[in-house]
Design goal:
The protein is α+β, with helices and mostly antiparallel strands. It contains twelve helices and 21 strands. The strands form six sheets. Strands 1, 2, 6, 7, 8, 9 and 21 form a seven-stranded mixed β-sheet that branches. Strand 18 and strand 19 form a beta hairpin. Helix 1 runs parallel beside helix 11 and helix 2 packs across helix 11. It is globular. The structure holds flavin-adenine dinucleotide. Flavin-adenine dinucleotide (FAD) binds next to helix 1, strand 3, strand 7 and helix 11.
Length: about 450
C-alpha cells in the first residue's frame, strides 16, 4: 500500500455543494485547505442534472444569495444558466448545465488555491480525548492520512462524523423510513415543441395527487416561455401504463429538468424503494436496479410520448442521488414546528423556504408541506455535539427528518457550507472550539459576501 501523510489547517471531506462552498469560504479566510472527494469529479449532486431549488420563497422573494448566488453568476457567465425563475410548483427554479458546474468548480478551487484529492474515500478516523485528529482515506492502493486542525464533513451521509463516533439519527421520526434514492439520466433528442403541444391538448396529464400542491399557470405556455423550467406531469400516461403492467418506475409522474441545451433534459423519475444508502449491499442493488429502470423508462417514453420518439440516453449519471441518510446530532437540532412557524433564531446562518418534500421510501407517494415564510438554520446545527475538531454541513446537519426534507436543497447546502467554512476559520484564528465561535462574526462574514439573514 502506498502511504501518504498530510497536514492541513482545514480538511473538507466531500466536494458537493456544501463541501465546495466550505472549502472556498475557509480558503478566502486565508486558511490552507484540502478537499478530499471519493468521486473522480467535483460537484456531488450538483453534477447530476438537478435544478437549484429554493433561491426564492413562496412569494418570489430571494432568500438565499452569498456564495450560492456566486455559483449562479459563474454559470450564467458561461451561458449555462439563466438565473432564477418563479415556478407555480417549486416556488422557483434555477436550471443549469451540470457538466459546466464541474468545470466552474475546477477553476474556482484553483483560483482560491484549495488543494484537491479525488478518488479517495474517508474510511477511518483517529479520535483522541473526544477530538478528531486525523482522517484516513483509501483509494487505488493508496492510504492517505490527513491531520487537520478542523475537519468539515460534507459527505452528505455524515460518514466522517459516524466514523468518529458522533451520535446520529436516520429516517422519519414515526416510521424510521428513509426517503428513496434516484438514478438520474441525461436524455437528448427530445422535440420539446411537439411535447408541449401534446401537454396543451391533454390537460389531464397535469393533474396531481392531493398531497402535491401547485398554483395555476403550471402549463404548456409556462414551459414554452423558457428553457429554465422543471416539468412534473404525464400522470394520465403513467397511470395507464401502470394498469397495463408497462410502467418500470414507482412514480406517479415524469419529472424532468430542462438543460440549457436544445433537446436535452435530465430525468429524475426512478425511485429505489426500501434502500439504505449506508449499507453497501442495499446501495449496490439500488444503483443497478436504478440504472435498469432508467433504460426501461426511456424506452417506454419513446414508444408512448409525443416528442420523445427520437430521444436517447446520452448518459446515466455516474452515481445514484441519495436523498436521506444520517443526520448528525449537533449542539442545535432544528425541528419541523420551528421551521413551519418561520422562526429565525438569533444565530441563523442561512434562511430556507423550500417545501417539506418527503418522497416515500415504500410507495409511489410524495408529501409536500408548504413553508409559508422562510425559517432560519442556526450555526449550532453545524457543530456535532460530541466530537471536537469537526463540523458538518449540507444534508447531514442537525435537523429533524422533516426539516431535512426542506433544508436538503442545494442552495441551502451551499449556504451551510459557506457558514461552516467561516466558522472553522474563525475557530482556528481565535483558538477556540467550533461551538465557542462568536456567531455574530460568522454572520458578519456571510453578510459581507452578500448573504441574506433576514426575511425580505
Ligand atoms: C434524486 C434527488 C433529487 C433532488 N432534487 C433536488 C432539486 O431538484 N433541487 C435541489 O436543490 N436539491 C435537490 N436534491 C437535494 C440535493 O441534491 C442534496 O440534498 C444536496 O446535494 C446535498 O448536498 P451535500 O453537499 O450535502 O451532499 P452531496 O451533494 O451528496 O455531496 C457529497 C459529496 O461527498 C462525497 N462523499 C461521500 N462520502 C464520502 C466519503 N466517505 N469520502 C469522500 N467523499 C465522500 C460524494 O461523492 C459527494 O461528492 C435532490 C436530491 C436527490 C437525491
Amino acid at each position: 500500500m502506498k502511504e501518504m501523510n498530510l497536514k492541513y489547517e482545514i480538511c473538507v471531506i466531500g466536494a458537493g455543494p456544501a463541501g465546495l462552498c466550505a472549502a472556498i469560504a475557509a480558503a478566502r479566510q486565508g486558511k490552507k485547505v484540502l478537499v478530499v472527494e471519493k468521486n473522480g469529479y467535483l460537484g456531488g449532486n450538483c453534477a447530476l442534472g438537478l435544478p437549484l431549488l429554493g433561491f426564492l420563497d413562496l412569494n418570489g422573494k430571494q432568500i438565499i444569495a452569498g456564495m450560492a448566488q456566486e455559483w449562479v453568476d459563474r454559470l450564467t457567465e458561461r451561458g449555462m444558466c439563466e438565473g432564477h425563475r418563479t415556478c407555480p410548483k417549486h416556488n422557483s427554479v434555477t436550471c443549469f448545465h451540470s457538466e459546466t458546474f464541474k468545470l466552474v468548480a475546477i477553476d474556482w478551487l484553483r483560483e482560491e488555491k484549495v488543494d484537491v484529492l479525488l478518488h479517495l474515500e474517508a474510511c477511518d478516523t483517529d479520535v483522541q480525548d473526544g477530538r478528531l485528529k486525523k482522517v484516513t482515506f483509501y483509494g487505488k492502493g493508496n492510504r492517505v492520512t490527513v491531520e487537520a486542525d478542523m475537519f468539515i464533513d460534507c459527505t452528505g451521509d455524515g460518514d466522517v462524523a459516524y466514523l468518529a463516533g458522533a451520535e446520529y439519527d436516520m429516517g422519519q421520526e414515526d416510521t424510521g423510513v428513509l426517503q428513496p434514492p434516484t438514478v438520474m439520466c441525461t436524455v437528448e433528442g427530445v422535440d420539446t415543441a411537439k411535447f408541449f403541444d401534446y401537454i396543451e391538448a391533454h390537460p389531464e396529464e397535469m393533474t396531481y395527487s392531493a398531497t402535491i400542491d401547485h398554483r395555476p399557470g403550471y402549463d404548456a405556455p409556462y414551459f414554452r416561455a423558457s428553457k429554465n423550467h422543471v416539468f412534473v406531469g404525464l400522470r394520465q400516461t403513467f397511470t395507464r401504463l401502470r394498469a397495463e403492467g408497462r410502467m418500470p418506475v414507482e412514480r406517479e409522474t415524469l419529472i424532468y429538468i430542462k438543460s440549457p441545451n436544445p433537446g436535452e433534459i435530465y430525468i429524475n423519475s426512478t425511485r429505489l424503494l426500501r434502500t439504505d444508502a449506508t449499507d453497501i449491499v442495499s446501495l449496490t442493488n439500488a444503483e443497478l436496479e436504478g440504472q435498469r429502470q432508467v433504460g426501461a423508462l426511456v424506452e417506454v417514453l419513446r414508444e408512448e410520448v409525443p416528442g420523445f420518439e427520437n430521444a436517447f440516453i446520452a448518459a446515466i449519471q455516474p452515481n445514484l442521488g441519495v436523498r436521506e441518510t444520517r443526520r448528525i446530532r449537533c449542539h442545535d437540532v432544528l425541528c419541523a414546528d420551528q421551521a413551519v412557524a418561520g422562526e429565525i433564531p438569533a444565530e441563523t446562518v442561512t434562511l430556507s423556504a423550500y417545501k417539506i418534500d418527503i418522497h416515500s421510501g415504500v410507495d409511489r407517494s410524495t408529501i409536500f408541506s408548504t413553508i409559508k415564510e422562510a425559517y432560519g438554520i442556526p450555526y449550532g446545527c453545524l457543530v456535532p455535539k460530541d466530537v471536537l475538531g469537526l463540523m458538518v454541513a449540507g444534508r447531514n446537519i442537525g435537523v429533524d427528518a422533516k426539516v431535512m426534507a426542506s433544508s436538503r436543497i442545494m442552495p441551502v447546502c451551499m449556504a451551510l457550507g459557506e457558514a461552516a467554512g467561516y466558522g472553522a476559520a474563525l475557530a482556528l484564528e481565535k483558538g477556540v472550539e467550533a461551538h465557542e465561535v462568536d456567531v455574530r462574526q460568522v454572520r458578519a462574514k456571510i453578510l459581507e459576501n452578500n448573504g441574506i439573514l433576514t426575511r425580505p
